[in-house]
């Protein structure tokens, strides 16, 4: 397939672009990006991961791509913030207090991400911390969230896998001003209620002078849903959730096979 109308390609990372080892074919990406540049196509990583984590993941490619990080809370291109939505300290402290009162949350399985780094309590669950280090850079332990001196984009927490959808719904219904999004089997991201990847990619396309019909997006999970709904060309790996597969224009091979990059190679 060749599509000369595509001007922006955005892809989710975990479960979509990356393989099971959270890696990708760097040589193939280099080839695809060169072709994108030649044809005037922008490439964006659209992830729930922190901005610092994405930059580390794509070290050496930073000047050739756009970063949509923190589930749409920030969009950065060539070191410039094109869009961002941060929480005030009073706001995220209030969210934390509300979470502690929920029947689902464990304060020791909670991480906040900001511009400078990520933050957990000193009492953090060791297993949760180890898992978080796969997706976040510069994780700092603090005695209290009051001690954080940073601009915060989102909170991430883990619920029991069997209850994660119930927990997500509880957060959205009981904590004013936020939206919860499932990002994995146990993990949810909590962002401002007007934030998601779909909002961010729409704002990005507007700044780039691109219509949504000229945008292709790859995604697999519920935090990709709005992004997949607003773009002209939604593409999903076969391992995607049923809700994502139902709206995909095209379904490609399992993410573990590197299918996103191989599909991009075909169309650019």
TrEMBL record:
Enzyme class: hydrolase
GO molecular function terms listed in the Swiss-Prot or TrEMBL record: hydrolase activity
Acyltransferase as UniProt keyword: no
PROSITE patterns: COF_2 (PS01229)
Keywords for the protein's UniProt record, in alphabetical order: Hydrolase
CDD domains xrefs: HAD_YbiV-Like
InterPro entries, A to Z: Cof (IPR000150), HAD-like_sf (IPR036412), HAD-SF_hydro_IIB (IPR006379), HAD_sf (IPR023214)
UniProt EC number: 3.1.3.-
Protein name per UniProt: HAD family hydrolase
